[in-house]
Amino acid sequence: MLGLLRASHPEPGAAVTAAAVLLAIGVGHSLTGTLVVGATVAASQLAVGWHNDYLDAGRDAAVGRPDKPIATGAVGRGTVGIAALVAAAVTVPVALLAGLPAAFAAALGLGSALAYNWPLKFTRASVLPYAVSFATLPAFVVLALPGAPAPPAWLIGAGGLLGAGAHFANALPDLGDDARTGVRGLPQRLGPTGSGIAAGALLLAATAVLVFGPPGPPSWAGLAAVAIAVAVLPIGWYLARQATARGARPVIAFRAVLVVALLDVLLLLASGRLVGTGA
Predict the structure, then answer these.
(1) Phi and psi at residue 34, in whole multiples of 5°?
(2) In the predicted model, is pLDDT for residue 276 greater than 80?
(3) Whether the Cβ atoms of residue 144 and residue 37 lie closer than 8 Å to each other
(4) 40 and 140 in contact (C-beta within 8 Å)?
(5) Orientation of helix 153-171 relative to helix 251-276, angle to 10°
(6) pLDDT tens column, 25-71
(7) What is the pLDDT of residue 250?
(8) Rounded distance, CA 62 to CA 16, Å?
(9) Quick one: the chain helix, strand, coil %, rounded to 5?
(10) Which domains does the chain have, with CATH numbers?
(11) Minimal CA–CA distance to 167: which of 191, 140, 185?
(12) CA 202, CA 207: separation in Å to the nearest integer?
């Protein structure tokens, strides 16, 4: 059972589910509505995580990934595949409890994420599923409200930019393993420098949309977030170049991107209050 849980990518899955639940609270969902949002996103995340490990089992074994339960024999590949099918089959019926528009958004997000696992992960279009799935997440949360109000365009746009940036940031630590196992998505084609620049630029754009997109003047907290993002990214790249020159791993650039990604998530959650008040 522990191996099956680990094969679901529990850390990012729990993080995305928690973010969806907090956003649901922010936009004004009732307890029941919040539970439906959480259950839908959790099932979707389980499906995507299991589907990913099921498909990547051979590549994970080839590079000796000790963190992959199928590769280490902690769980059978067939078991993970069945779990992925069950989780995917549960996602849309649960989402239908929030209405047809919300269920459509949930299905689109799930389908997009599964399409990343295969075949788009290996193509120049690998960034598109991340952008689509992250854009549909806040859209689903808003559409799940009574009356299915239309989510604001700036919220969907910010989600898409955050997802696209997350794709490049997530790929940075694994570019070496990906090259050995034939993964040729857009980050692998751009390489470490190009992917790092893309991640930073997209996340900075997401920050700007979350701060300046909602009606009315931006908050001081939002402006501070933009200033931090503008400062952190170039400092991170400079320190990374220094580390490379010394022969060390340039992990500081990845951490700088993570700081901006965290700022974007916090801004996204804070934006729920604006959406909930109809701003």
Answers:
(1) -65, -40
(2) no
(3) yes
(4) yes
(5) 160
(6) 999 999 999 999 999 999 999 999 999 999 999 988 888 888 899 99
(7) 60
(8) 29
(9) 80, 0, 20
(10) 1-124 (1.10.357), 152-279 (1.20.120.1780)
(11) 185
(12) 9
